[in-house]
Design goal:
Length: 694
């Protein structure tokens, strides 16, 4: 009996020691080496910087590192200068970022020269689509870390504070310096006393890590909670209500960042309800915030029931307002013109609004990329977007440069990512989804770093085992680890987004999801009476003649291509010059259209769908070979998710190809894997799952 009891205790202890829930993200220091931190100033932030060094130092034992706040013209904003033994910055947050960079270099074995690093964007912000009842819109990693329902909804517990602090630290480690705490589909209640008290408590925890707090607000709040009859932005009483509210907020949160607003979009109230423009609405809020240095992020995600091509609508509504916004208003534009699809061309608003500050909105949470089931490393998607040339001020006017202040004069520069964080132990659901949080921060700090470097760093920090020799030098991960783990896993990450494009919607197809949570295939989905631009047939336009959305200037096209600057307008309008990745975004083409490969469009489509499935099968093999380098918990977790993904990829391929085949009336290429599902079965399965597909 005794032996059994000992055994049980031993097993339990081992489990608790070795259980790996992923909570530590990319911040895994082990066996710290002694270091002497020299810093003449003191503040809560500098104390954090000092602690980080003491917890994570992997350099020479007993070395001295000095932290110096000293103005230097070459250092901008919260940038820093680092060398092996010193960090210099203009601000204390710059020091903290420098410390994290120094430690990252040590952990990953990258060298450290004397160098300066300045942020690409001043404001690097996470948008949480968290509702006050604790649910998270498009969240796949559990409930909100900020809000909950029930008796203790407003109580700030120690557990809350610890979690918020861990969250803040993780953000600071990758340079994120802002959080919008609630959903853009905002509740007016966020501006009530109770709520603002909780916001203050959160802001107090985030502050030392350099993170400003922002809120999403509902435009009709004055009428809903202010006792005013209207929310017309030109009504003086309304403007005064907002001014007073802003004053209250700043008395609680002196460094409050500002408001994010979704107005006149998908049923949300806005200035147009009162015959006013987006500029009238945004400026009224901007005037209330400007005395305190606050900003308004006004979203351009608008489309109506009009017959106009949905992809053109944001541009049509916002371009006429260019130049009418205050300098503390930033128009927040999603990367693509439709809605966070696996692939879209960049939104034509980037670079086109020349007298208005524009910021990109990226989606970290995988609403359209397989939720937290599919492995999708999003840095390649964001890199492709940020490096897209808009040609708005000649060649080289990339989206990054059109938004970071290097081309257009602008008071602020900003970038936002819709967060994928929830109460799940590992924060993000899929262990690899953490890499997207990481990648967003790294790209917001430096928009020109390559996806490959980001993946490399993340894998080393998240799965790496550094070894330290007697002299304290970290002999970075072994050759075996590099060859058999780092390199294949990195390749898998880098290929993962393209795999999804291939098995979901290749060659420029978009928005062919079923109604069920934007997860599974639904090219057929078009219930009677449903708004056309909410149904996949609107987007793929399949018929016996061909497939694709005609956005050319031809009489049958919407001329969406016309919203781009030359030479893109012409390049996109001509199928022979349009990049094939965007072909069916801009063109409706016959099934036997000749592709660059010499194959017909139909055959090419088949090859892409099949290629996507094959890639995921390959990922499974890669991951299985990684087993001996990964802890059991994360290994099994990823292995299981890859299995689901494989099956889903097959469903996508069979559903889309069998559905499109009804129009193409062409056989599958003969050397090509035969479908394993029947279309009827997949349609029925989809219908039964309405509302709760994952
Ligand atoms: O993509 C759509 C989402 C909605 C979201 C909306 C938006 C927050 O399906 O869930 O609402 O975009 O960005 O406003």
């Amino acid at each position: 009996m005794k032996i059994i009891a000992y055994l049980v205790i031993f097993v339990l202890v081992s489990i608790s020691v070795y259980a790996e829930d992923g909570h530590n993200l990319w911040l895994r220091y082990s066996n710290p080496i002694s270091v002497n931190v020299v810093c003449v100033k003191s503040s809560p932030t500098l104390t954090l910087a000092r602690q980080e060094l003491q917890m994570g130092w992997k350099g020479e034992p007993g070395a001295s590192v000095s932290l110096v706040i000293k103005a230097d013209k070459a250092i901008r904003g919260d940038g820093y200068r680092i060398s092996k033994n010193a960090i210099q910055a203009n601000t204390e947050f710059g020091i903290l970022y420098g410390v994290f960079e120094l430690l990252r270099r040590q952990q990953t074995g990258e060298g450290i020269q004397d160098e300066i690093s300045n942020p690409s964007y001043d404001r690097r912000i996470l948008n949480h689509w968290d509702n006050l009842n604790g649910s998270v819109e498009r969240g796949y990693a559990g409930q909100s870390i900020f809000w909950r329902e029930g008796k203790d909804a407003w109580t700030v517990t120690e557990t809350d504070k610890i979690l918020w602090q861990e969250y803040a630290r993780a953000n600071a480690s990758i340079g994120i310096n802002g959080s919008v705490l609630n959903n853009v589909n905002a509740s007016q209640l966020i501006l009530t006393k109770e709520c603002l008290q909780r916001v203050k408590a959160i802001a107090d925890v985030l502050r030392p890590y350099g993170i400003r707090t922002y809120l999403s607000v509902k435009f009709s709040s004055p009428a809903l909670i202010g006792g005013i009859k209207t929310s017309d932005p030109l009504n003086p009483e309304v403007a005064k209500w907002w001014k007073d509210k802003v004053k209250d907020i700043y008395s609680l949160i002196p460094d409050f960042g500002g408001f994010l607003v979704k107005a006149n979009s998908e049923g949300q109230p806005g200035p147009q309800d009162f015959g006013r423009t987006h500029a009238d609405g945004a400026n009224m809020l901007a005037d209330a915030l400007s005395p305190y240095g606050g900003i308004v992020m006004w979203r351009a995600f608008v489309y109506s029931t009009s017959n106009e091509d949905r992809a053109k609508q944001a541009y049509l509504e916002f371009m006429p307002l260019d130049g009418q916004f205050r300098d503390n208003v930033i128009i927040q534009v999603k990367n693509g013109p439709v809605d966070f699809q696996p692939r879209e061309p960049f939104s034509p608003l980037f670079g086109a609004m020349k007298e208005t500050t524009v910021m990109p909105e990226l989606q970290i949470t995988q609403e359209y990329l397989g939720h937290s089931i599919h492995l999708a490393f999003l840095a390649p998607l964001w890199e492709e977007f940020l490096q897209s040339d808009t040609y708005q001020k000649g060649p080289g006017s990339t989206v990054a440069h059109c938004t970071d202040g290097s081309i257009f004069p602008q008071k602020y520069s900003a970038i936002a990512g819709v967060s994928n964080i929830g109460l799940d132990a590992n924060w993000c659901g899929h262990p690899f989804a953490q890499a997207n949080w990481y990648a967003f921060g790294r790209l917001a700090w430096n928009s020109s770093i390559r996806s490959e470097l980001i993946a490399d760093e993340w894998i080393k920090l998240t799965f790496g085992r550094t070894t330290t020799n007697a002299n304290g030098a970290t002999s970075d991960l072994s050759i075996d680890w590099n060859l058999n783990f780092l390199s294949p896993v990195k390749q898998m990450m880098l290929d993962s987004r393209e795999a999804i494009v291939d098995y979901m919607m290749p060659l420029g197809l978009h928005h062919i999801f079923s109604a069920n949570g934007h997860y599974g295939p639904g090219p057929w989905w078009a219930p009677k009476g449903m708004r056309k631009d909410w149904t996949p047939p609107y987007f793929h336009q399949s018929d016996t003649l061909g497939i694709g959305f005609d956005r050319t200037p031809s009489t049958r096209g919407s001329n969406g291509a016309g919203q781009y600057q030359e030479p893109l307008r012409s390049v996109f309008s001509d199928p022979s010059t349009c990049p094939e990745a965007y072909l069916l975004w801009f063109h409706h083409l016959p099934w036997d259209y000749r592709m660059k490969s010499g194959r017909t469009l139909w055959d090419e489509l088949c090859i892409h769908y099949d290629g996507g499935v094959q890639k995921v099968r390959q990922f499974q093999k890669i991951w299985d070979q990684a087993e001996r380098y990964v802890d059991r918990d994360r290994f099994v977790d990823v292995q299981k998710r890859l299995r689901d993904q494989s099956l889903n990829a097959l469903e996508w391929k069979d559903a889309c190809l069998l559905y499109f085949q009804q129009f193409s009336r062409k056989p599958f290429p003969y050397n090509f894997e035969r479908p394993m599902y029947n279309l009827d079965y997949l349609i029925e399965k989809d219908t039964k799952r309405v509302g709760n597909y994952h």
